[in-house]
């Protein structure tokens, strides 16, 4: 009997503070209309002072556990995708584990920037399929506002904070059908925070560690790469485009999402779009979008979802799942 990993609960959390495009008009030389036309973003949420990635992750995790009808004590694996961890170490997953009063199960972070949640889901799927876990908490959580240069109009309009989570459980019925994870480090300089612990630590200390992006070049590679991942995912499962009920994409830019939807020949009502409400929340964006469409009743049990993402690295990937 094949063991599948099935999503049994979803949760999302956005910090209270909302930063609208009109607020940004007062900070940099931009306009609401430009931002909406080029990105589809209307507003983003910003973590309060002292509110951390772990705080956001905990809220999303508790909501996902509640939706799955599971207690924290039943969780036997925690994977947190984040690029903005609370600390250098321990990992944010360890901090989330402590918050949830869980003891002993493996807990670790995954760093694949905007593709982080897809990587985390792909990894957790393998733990469950091989019998190493039965109930996994998979979280994407970010406080990107802490690494945004709020004087750079070409990047500051794009990003926001948030967290999303799923509970993934062993099941005899599908389930995740396949995951496809990729990276090509030759693109590292196109989208980066070019400092870290072992290089440029002084910039990290002085708050100069911010996102640098060649937006136009990122855009082109993202559209082409995500088109290819659609083909790869369908071919691996012997499926046609019409077999996919929902596209749950990384929420970076409405134009990138629309290009992928066209590739799948999906009508707009079959594409989950939340980028207008929270901008690019990196690893949090796919589970945030999934949670919205599950909770409002759009995505139903038995339907087939294609989740995909693209991010710094470049990394990219997809997960095809029956919900
Ligand atoms: N408001 C107004 N004008 C802006 C602006 C802003 N916030 N940001 C950039 N501009 C200007 C530029 O300065 C440029 O002006 P110029 O022609 O006088 O030099 C003009 O708009 C066009 O810039 P360009 O970068 O070519 O725009 P674009 O159509 O590529 O849109 C992005 C910019 C960032 C929205 C787009 O490239 C994008 O979304 N890229 C992908 C980003 C992404 O998703 N990254 C994360 C991947 S996980």
Describe it.
The chain has 323 residues and is α/β, with parallel strands linked by helices. The chain is built from eleven helices and 13 strands. Strand 4, helix 4 (92-99) and strand 5 form a beta-alpha-beta unit. The structure holds coenzyme A (COA). Coenzyme A (COA) binds at residues 30, 34-35, 38-39, 114, 153-154, 157, 213, 215-216, 218-219, 222, 252-253, 280, 310-311.
Question: What descriptors fit this protein?
Answer:
alpha/beta; five-stranded mixed β-sheet; four-stranded mixed β-sheet; 34% helix; binds coenzyme A
Walk me through the topology.
Layout: E1 4-13, E2 17-20, H1 21-25, H2 32-39, E3 43-46, H3 53-68, E4 77-81, H4 92-99, E5 107-110, H5 116-129, E6 135-143, H6 153-156, E7 161-171, E8 176-183, E9 191-192, H7 201-205, E10 212-213, H8 215-237, E11 246-249, H9 254-264, H10 275-278, H11 285-295, E12 304-311, E13 315-322
Parallel strand pairs: 4-5, 4-6, 11-12
Antiparallel strand pairs: 1-7, 2-3, 6-7, 8-13, 9-10, 12-13
Helix pairs in contact: 3-4, 8-9
The protein binds coenzyme A.
Residues 30, 34-35, 38-39, 114, 153-154, 157, 213, 215-216, 218-219, 222, 252-253, 280, 310-311 line the site of coenzyme A.
Q: Looking across the biggest beta sheet, what order are the strands in?
A: 1-7-6-4-5
Q: Alpha-carbon distance between the termini?
A: 19 Å
Please write the string of helix (H) and strand (E) elements. EEHHEHEHEHEHEEEHEHEHHHEE
Percent of residues in helices: 25-40%
Instruction: Please tell me how large the radius of gyration is.
Output: 18 Å
